[in-house]
From TrEMBL:
Its main location: membrane. It comes from Mucilaginibacter pallidiroseus. GO terms for molecular function: carbohydrate binding; siderophore uptake transmembrane transporter activity. InterPro entries: Beta-barrel_TonB, Beta-barrel_TonB_sf, Carb-bd-like_fold, Plug_dom, Plug_dom_sf, TonB-dep_rcpt-like. The keyword rRNA-binding does not apply. Belongs to the TonB-dependent receptor family. This is TonB-dependent receptor. It is a multi-pass membrane protein. Keywords: Cell outer membrane, Ion transport, Iron, Iron transport, Membrane, Receptor, Signal, TonB box, Transmembrane, Transmembrane beta strand, Transport. It holds the Pfam family TonB_dep_Rec_b-barrel.
Length: 799
C-alpha cells in the first residue's frame, strides 16, 4: 500500500459556487503547485500515501489551507471567501456596480472571454449580453467594429480600462481596432446599462463598459494561441508570465498579430499589438505598471455599399462591393487605408491604509498618431487653398490627388479613489479624475496627377484642440435590515478649446466650459441571499462632440444632452437558474440628432430635440437543464420615441429645405426587440458544443419612421431604395471547444467557430441621406453587409 500512487483532485469556487479559473493550488511535501483550468478544477497525480497540506489562493479571495491524510485517491474542494482587501480590485470596484447595486449590469469572466475569443474585436465578446447590437465594417468582426447598447452608439457608451477612460476626448467614440486582440489581456468586464454608477470620462448615455486587464497569476506560464479562418484570417498570440517571484514580483507579456482580407472587397486588416505588465506586491499594497499598444492598417470600408448596388442581382459582388479608392482608369488606389498607432502607459497603485480605509490611484498617458489616406478624382484645387496653375496653355482647376488627414494626440491624467468601510453595513467611496487631451488635426496633399505647383506633403489645414476634464464623485451604500440604500453624486467640469466659426463666420480659436452635476439614488431589498429587487434613479449629462462645435457658430451651437434614467428590477440565483428582469425608462432632454437641417455655416450638424425617451424591459437568465446541458438567453423589448420632431429634406431642385413634422416618431438605430440564445452541451469532460443565436428586429436609419414629406412620392420601388430602414435578421453560430492535457502540455485547447451557419444574407448597420430631386424623394442608402457562412479554428497550447 505504501508504494501505491494516488491522486488528489478537486474544484475551487467562490462563495456563490462559481468556478475560479486560474486559481493557484499548492501542495507541501513534495512542494508542487498548479492552477485550476477553465472549470475551476485541479489535479495532482502520482502521490504516495501520507499527510499533505494543500493551500488554495486566488487574487481577491482569502487564502485557504487544508490538511489531509492520503490513503487513496481523494477529492478536496475549496470555497474561497472574499478577501476584505484585494489591492488589485480597488481601482476597478470604485467605478463598478456591486452584487446588490440597484443598477442593470452583466459581469463577463475571463473564462467566458476565453470561450469566445477567436480574434474578433472586443465588441463581439459582448454580443450575448442584454440590449447589445454589434456590427463590422469589413463584415467579419475584425477591423473597424461598432457597438450599441439600448440603441445608443459608441459615442454615448463610456469605456474605461482599469478605471482609465478609453473614449476619444473629442469624437467620444471608442476605437477598439486600435487595440487588436486586447481580449487576450483582459481578466474581466462589467457592462452596465443606462447611466449606471459614476465613472471617469465621457458620460454613459446608453451604458458603460468597464474593463480590468490581467491580474496576478502565482504560477509561471507560457501560452501559444493560433487562429486560422475564412477570408485569409490568421491570428497568432504568444503570452508568457513569470508567476510570483520571491513572493513579491510578477511580469506578464503578450504579443499578437491579426491579418484578414475581410468579407467586403479590399476591407483588409493588418493588426499588431503587445501588452506588458509588471507588478510589485507588498504586504498591504500593489504597484503595477502596464504598457500596451496597438497598430492598425485597414483598407477603408467605412462608406458601406449603396442600395442600388446591393439590390442589383446582376452584379456578381453586389454584397461585397467597395467603391473606396476607385481611380479614373478603373483600378483601385492601393493605399486607401487607415493607418494609426496608439500606445498606452498606466501606473496603478493600491494601498490598504487601515482595516477600514483603502486607496487607489493611477497615472496614465496615451499617445496616438496616424492618418487616413484617400484618393480623390478631379478634386477642386480651391478646396485645398491651391491657386490654379496654367499648364500647356490650360488652367488646371481640378485634378486627381491623394491626401492624408492626420491626428496626432496626447491624453494623460490621474484617477483616484478612497474607499472607507467604517462598519459592515456602511461603505463610502470618494473618487475622481483629472484628464487633459491635446490633439493636432492636419491634412497633407501627397500626390497630384498634374503638377499643382505645390511641394511634397503640402499642408492644407491645421486645427489644434485641447480639452480638460475634471470630475469628483462620492458614493455610499448603507445596509438597513434587508434593505441597502444607495446614493451617488458626481460633479464634472469640462473646458474645451477648438478652432471653429465665430458669430462673424471667421474660423478662430474658441473655447467652451461646461459644468455637470450627476446625482444617483437607489434601493435594493434582499429577500434572501439569492433573491433581491431594486429601484434607482440617475441623472446623466453629455457634452456635444468635436463636429458639433467646429461646424457651428455660438448662435447655432447645440446644448449638452441630459438624461433621467429610471430602473426597476429583480435578480435571482440558484444552482439551477440565475437571471433577472429589468424595467427601464430613459427620458432625454436636448438629445442630439441629425435632422437634415443646415445651420448658419451650411453644415448638417446635429441639433437638439426637446423631448425623447427609451422605455423597455430586459430579461436575461441561464438555466441548467441537465448536468451537461445549459441554456442562456436574453431579450429586450423596447419603445424608443421622439416627441414633436422636425426633419428637413434638402430639395436639390431649388436648394430649399422641406419640413416634415412628426408628433411622435421612432429613434434611429433602435430595434424594438433584441434577443440572444446560447445552448451549451458538454458531452465529455473538457468538451463543449454551443449553439448561439441572435435576433435583431427591423430598425430605421433616420428618425422619420420612413415617413416622407407630403406631396413628394418616392423615386423608386425597390425595397432598399424605397425604405430608410434596416431589415430584421436572425443569425446563428456554432462553437466547438475541447480541452485536454498531456504530461508535457498543461492544456491543449482546440476550438471551431462557425459564424452564420445558415448563411443568412443581412446588413447590421447602414446610413441614409434622403433628399428631393425631380419632385420626388430619393433615399441615398448605404448598408454594411455581414459575412455569410464562415469559420475560425483555433489551437491553444498552455505550458
Amino acid at each position: 500500500m505504501a508504494s501505491a500512487q494516488f491522486t488528489i483532485s478537486g474544484k475551487i469556487t467562490n462563495p456563490e459556487g462559481e468556478a475560479l479559473p486560474g486559481a493557484t493550488i499548492s501542495l507541501s511535501n513534495p512542494a508542487l503547485n498548479t492552477q485550476t483550468n477553465g472549470g475551476g478544477n485541479y489535479q495532482f497525480n502520482n502521490l504516495k500515501a501520507g499527510a499533505y497540506t494543500l493551500t488554495a489562493s486566488f487574487v481577491g479571495y482569502q487564502t485557504t489551507t487544508k490538511t489531509i491524510r492520503l490513503n487513496g485517491s481523494q477529492t478536496v474542494n475549496f470555497s474561497l471567501g472574499s478577501a476584505t482587501f484585494s489591492a488589485e480590485q480597488v481601482t476597478v470596484t470604485a467605478t463598478r456596480a456591486g452584487k446588490n447595486s440597484p443598477t442593470a449590469f452583466t459581469n463577463i469572466s475571463k473564462k467566458d472571454l476565453e470561450k469566445t475569443n477567436f480574434g474578433q474585436d472586443l465588441p463581439y465578446m459582448l454580443n450575448q449580453t442584454p440590449s447589445v447590437v454589434v456590427s463590422s465594417d469589413a463584415g467579419t468582426g475584425i477591423g473597424y467594429t461598432g457597438i450599441r447598447i439600448r440603441g445608443s452608439d459608441g459615442t454615448r457608451v463610456n469605456v474605461t480600462v482599469n478605471g482609465i477612460p478609453l473614449n476619444d476626448a473629442e469624437s467620444q467614440g471608442s476605437f477598439f481596432v486600435n487595440l487588436p486582440d486586447f481580449t487576450s489581456s483582459v481578466n474581466n468586464i462589467q457592462v452596465q446599462r443606462g447611466v449606471g454608477t459614476s465613472t471617469n470620462g465621457a458620460g454613459a448615455f446608453g451604458g458603460s463598459i468597464n474593463v480590468q486587464t490581467a491580474t496576478r497569476r502565482d504560477t509561471g506560464y507560457a501560452d501559444i494561441n493560433n487562429t486560422f479562418g475564412s477570408y485569409g484570417t490568421v491570428k497568432n498570440t504568444v503570452s508568457i508570465g513569470s508567476g510570483l517571484l520571491g513572493g513579491k514580483f510578477s511580469v506578464d507579456g503578450r504579443l499578437s498579430r491579426i491579418r484578414s482580407d475581410g468579407y467586403i472587397d479590399r476591407a483588409s486588416s493588418n493588426l499588431q499589438s503587445f501588452f506588458v505588465s509588471a507588478a510589485y506586491y507588498g504586504k498591504s499594497s500593489t504597484l503595477r505598471a502596464n504598457v500596451f499598444a496597438g497598430k492598425e492598417r485597414t483598407y477603408q470600408a467605412w462608406n458601406g455599399i449603396p442600395d442600388y448596388i446591393i439590390s442589383d442581382n446582376s452584379i456578381p459582388n453586389r454584397r461585397t462591393y467597395n467603391e473606396l479608392g476607385l481611380m479614373a482608369d478603373g483600378t483601385y488606389y492601393k493605399d486607401q487605408v487607415d493607418n494609426y498607432q496608439q500606445n498606452h502607459y498606466q501606473l496603478l497603485y493600491d494601498q490598504k491604509l487601515s482595516d477600514k480605509l483603502t486607496f487607489s490611484g493611477a497615472l496614465h498617458y496615451t499617445k496616438g498618431k496616424g492618418y487616413y489616406e484617400e484618393f480623390r478624382i478631379a478634386d477642386s484645387l480651391n478646396r485645398y487653398g491651391i491657386t490654379p496653375v496654367t499648364y500647356n496653355g490650360e488652367t488646371i482647376l481640378a485634378t486627381d490627388l491623394a491626401r492624408r488627414r492626420w491626428l496626432d494626440n496626447d491624453f494623460y491624467g490621474v484617477t483616484y479613489a478612497l474607499k472607507y468601510l467604517p462598519t459592515s453595513n456602511l461603505n463610502l467611496t470618494l473618487g475622481g479624475a483629472y484628464n487633459r487631451y491635446s490633439g493636432a488635426h492636419f491634412g497633407n496633399v501627397i500626390y497630384t496627377r498634374e503638377s499643382a505647383g505645390i511641394g511634397p506633403n503640402y499642408e492644407y489645414y491645421r486645427d489644434d484642440a485641447n480639452k480638460n476634464d475634471f470630475n469628483i464623485f462620492t458614493r455610499g451604500e448603507l445596509k438597513v435590515g434587508n434593505a441597502t440604500l444607495f446614493a451617488d453624486m458626481q460633479y464634472r467640469r469640462i473646458y474645451y478649446s477648438f478652432l471653429g466659426f465665430d458669430r462673424n463666420l471667421n474660423n478662430v480659436q474658441q473655447n467652451a466650459t461646461l459644468n455637470f452635476f450627476n446625482p444617483k439614488a437607489g434601493i435594493t431589498y434582499e429577500f434572501d441571499a439569492h433573491n433581491n429587487v431594486y429601484a434607482s434613479f440617475a441623472v446623466g449629462n453629455h457634452e456635444p462632440n468635436r463636429d458639433d462645435y467646429t461646424n457651428s457658430t455660438p448662435q447655432s451651437r447645440p446644448k449638452p444632452e441630459n438624461l433621467k434614467d429610471f430602473e426597476l428590477g429583480y435578480r435571482t440565483s440558484s444552482d439551477v437558474f440565475k437571471g433577472g428582469i429589468n424595467l427601464f425608462y430613459m427620458l432625454y432632454k436636448n438629445q442630439l440628432i441629425l435632422t437634415g437641417a443646415l445651420n448658419d455655416v451650411g453644415s448638417a450638424t446635429r441639433r437638439n430635440v426637446d423631448k425623447s425617451y427609451r422605455a423597455g424591459i430586459e430579461l436575461d437568465g441561464r438555466v441548467k437543464l441537465a448536468r451537461q446541458l445549459s441554456w442562456g438567453a436574453t431579450a429586450t423589448i423596447s419603445t424608443n420615441k421622439i416627441k414633436n420632431y422636425s426633419q428637413f429634406f434638402t430639395n436639390y431642385d431649388d436648394n430649399s429645405q422641406v419640413l416634415l413634422f412628426l408628433p411622435k416618431t421612432d429613434i434611429a438605430y433602435s430595434p424594438s426587440f433584441i434577443g440572444s440564445s446560447e445552448i451549451s452541451y458538454s458531452p465529455v469532460k473538457g468538451g463543449e458544443i454551443a449553439f448561439i443565436s441572435k435576433y435583431i428586429s427591423s430598425q430605421y436609419l433616420d428618425n422619420t419612421s420612413n415617413t416622407n414629406p407630403e406631396g413628394f412620392p418616392v423615386a423608386a420601388s425597390n425595397k432598399y431604395i424605397m425604405n430608410r430602414q434596416l431589415s430584421g435578421y436572425f443569425v446563428s453560430d456554432v462553437r466547438l471547444r475541447y480541452n485536454f492535457s498531456t504530461r508535457a502540455v498543461k492544456n491543449i485547447g482546440i476550438g471551431l467557430l462557425v459564424n452564420n451557419i445558415f448563411s443568412k444574407e443581412y446588413e447590421a448597420n447602414g446610413a441614409t441621406y434622403p433628399g428631393i430631386s425631380g419632385g420626388m424623394v430619393s433615399n441615398y442608402n448605404y448598408f454594411f453587409p455581414q459575412a455569410t457562412r464562415n469559420f475560425l479554428a483555433s489551437v491553444n497550447l498552455s505550458f
